[in-house]
Amino acid sequence: MTKTASIADPVTPVSSKSGDPYLLTPGPLTTSLRTKQAMLRDWGSWDGDFKAVTAEIRTRLVEMCDGGNEYDCVPMQGSGTFSVEAALASFIPKDGKALVLMNGAYGQRASKTLQYIDRDYVALDKGDYLPPMPEEVDAILAQDKEITHVIAVHCETSSGILNPLQGISDAVQKHGRKLIVDSMSAFGAVPLSVKDIPFVCMVSSANKCIEGVPGFGFILAKKSELEAAKGNSHSLSLDVHDQWAVMNKTGQWRFTPPTHTVVAFLEALKQHEAEGGVEGRLARYAGNRDILIEGMRKMGFETLLEDEWISPIITTFFCPKHENFDFQTFYNEIKKRGFIIYPGKLTNIASFRIGCIGQLHADTMHGVLRAIRETCDAMGVTDRSPPEER
Length: 390
Ligand SMILES: *Cc1c(COP(=O)(O)O)cnc(C)c1O
Prior knowledge:
The protein is of the alpha/beta class. The protein is built from twelve helices and 14 strands. The chain has helices spanning 33-37, 48-64, 80-91, 105-116, 134-143, 165-174, 223-228, 240-250, 259-274, 277-298, 327-336, 362-379; strands spanning 22-23, 71-77, 97-102, 120-125, 149-153, 155-156, 161-162, 178-182, 201-205, 216-222, 314-318, 339-340, 342-343, 351-355. The strands form four sheets. Strands 2-10-9-8-5-3-4 form a seven-stranded mixed beta sheet, with helices on both faces. Strands 11-14-13 form a three-stranded antiparallel beta sheet, with helices on one face. A two-stranded parallel sheet has the order 1-12. Helix 5 packs parallel to helix 6 (165-174). It is globular and about 60 Å long. The structure holds pyridoxal-5'-phosphate (PLP).
């Protein structure tokens, strides 16, 4: 496999069963054929059969976080960001104040959202690759009694860091404040139980670790908080309380739901269960990550993060400093070989990301490693180490 490939002629094109490249991205991601096939029917959004699908999804998601009778699930149309915005506007009262724990693009987006919806906040900004530590949260909350809510990103997908959510939650509980979790890219693959982490609300979406297709997000929240959210939201379409109240009353989504996406999601949830639920999925994703990182390090690539913080979701690698390296060519060559990787999202240094989630298995990870090796050979990138001044 070390034989030099010509740039135009990949040696080992590998592709998914559908013939499309594998998506090594954090969503949309490669879904199973069964999930895609579930979209081949049309559904009436007000019909009993579709209402039953919505109801089953809600029940399964509440179970996934051990929510029991105390929690409920509210699905919301749109991408994940719509659900985050809906949650922040609905659960943080107009006179509330948030602490945003920021270490990447999604924490920044939460802050920006608070500016749009005019909620007071302070941020703990740790830059690109350091986690917000429980001691820091503890100190800020001890000092600022006005803070009512803490917003934490579970896996910050822009670097792939898995933030220390348990410790953060303990600090928030100690001070009697409320925790809002963006577990968009982790829920379903990283355990998150309200028995350990009693969040007031958690947000995720269809096209991440549950392996559905894009189109809606969902909010898991304490029923008492859903009650109390009445009147908080500035937005009709993003009002979580209203969506919840109407859905409980009628079984329907207030406005047109992405019916095909919803039905595919239930199919994805059944496969998630068959794989062994959260534990089973975590085992496969962690296995994918381990193969990836071992292979990349053997080739001389370096990860942004120390091992302790690397999630089983997505991993950031530094771009090689070698003069022949060019990201767009690298990307195109890997795509020709059947894999789509992800550009980096760091502020100061060139990087790229490779995801481990979706219908990817050990052979897929070995396949992408082969494609990367061939690409480096073809481009003449003989040294894969990053610049010293990183
Ligand atoms: C994917 C993601 C979101 C939502 O992104 P959308 O593009 O709106 O779906 C939010 N937070 C995190 C941590 C994510 O990974």
